[in-house]
Amino acid sequence: MRKIILLAFLSIAISAGAQETKSLTLKEAINYALQNKADAKKAKLEVENSEYKIEEVRSRALPQISANGSLTYNPILQTTYLDGGNFGGTPGSVVKLNFGQKWSSVAGVSLTQALFDQSVFTGLKAAKTTREFYQINAQLTEEQVIERVANNYYQVYVQRQKLAVLDSNYVNTTKVKNIIKGQFDNGLAKKIDLDRIVVKLSNISTQRQQVLNAVQLQENALKFYMGMPIETPISIPQTAFEVSPQALSEAPNTANRTEYLLLKKNEQLLEFQKKADMAAYYPTLSLTAGYNYIGQGPKVPLGAKPADGVYWSDYSAIGLNLKVPIFTGFSTRSKVRQDEVSLRSIKEDLIDTKLSLDLAYENAKTQIDNSIITIKNQKENAQLSQEVLNNTNNNYIQGLATLTDLLDAENAYIEAQNNYTAAILDYKLAEIQLIKSKGELKTLIN
């Protein structure tokens, strides 16, 4: 029995060691996400895959070489009838001839080389743009990962701050409850006062459980956006976030934003697509060459010799293939016009994206300004509510304030602290949007 208990304790100890709490700064959380989140990994894979797509396009400009082989059995040979005079016989007579042999085998090599194909040349020019498109897309994905992680990181911090306020208030209220309990036991306090403070403690405990649940949910969301196993326990250092005015003198250059650059690259790719479709109007010229070795006879040629009635010979051919399009049923024209519509559409996207990015910057700037004022006011209000609570608590102990005054002061203190914490969160979220509007999200990991 003792051995079983000892093994149980060892198992619990090993499990606890395996679930060691991981302390995370914002920088560490973002770096972890960039290394482990599926979105970031997939974006890197797309960049790698773009190189293979480029190689696929380049392959169309290289020689295409293939080997071929066949084995054919002709159970009934083709028969033809010719004038016997052509073969030294009597003119007008008929000679019956069978063409071919019962068995034939061919093995050879063929080569095709594009000499002029406008679509291939256009594809080669588009290869560099394709690579750049996927690189910019990977950069945009990283920025999106950074933004999500930062937002959720601050959300976790705020929820934990709310939890800390409730914990502190619970401790203080418990002290008051003990005082009232002592007074009640000595006949110096009313039972209704004791009941009210007990109800207050119960309400704080309920609020604490709700906030604790919100903390857990927010931490799970953070770990999801980081690509971290959900069961991993984490902690965020209780450091005060810096709140300082941002540089708002100049609006950012929207043309340098990743979202805008990605659309511009997509526009270039659509231009190349249009040129590739227009290439169908141009002729194509290719070189073909082939060399084959054929064996024929009354039996399977493989391994057979002339002594077996099987004869082998080789032949080759070299040629030029020219294809000049004349009429394609207007399919090429339709494709080109579709490309033109896509280009007009993406130009509208560029205009709308620029407006959206400018709007995000102006909104973030306004929110920053308002949040700084709100934080200043709420900080003063929180400090004042703390002083009021302390004074009311002392007055209550000395019999100079009622329990109602004390409970009201506690409620005001909790509300003021939560308002201050919410103001900090609004500021930090607006700060992220401002940094994003400048295209500087990666500065969060520097």
TrEMBL record:
Q: Which InterPro entries match?
A: OMP_efflux, TolC-like
Question: Where in the cell does this protein reside?
Answer: Cell outer membrane
- Give the chief site where it resides: membrane
Signal peptide range in chain numbering: 1-18
GO terms for MF: efflux transmembrane transporter activity; porin activity
Residue runs in coiled coils: 361-395
- Matching Pfam families: OEP
Task: One GO cellular component term, please give it.
Answer: cell outer membrane
Q: Which UniProt keywords apply?
A: Cell outer membrane, Coiled coil, Membrane, Signal, Transmembrane, Transmembrane beta strand, Transport
Q: Which family does this protein fall into?
A: Belongs to the outer membrane factor (OMF) (TC 1.B.17) family.
Q: What is this protein called?
A: TolC family protein
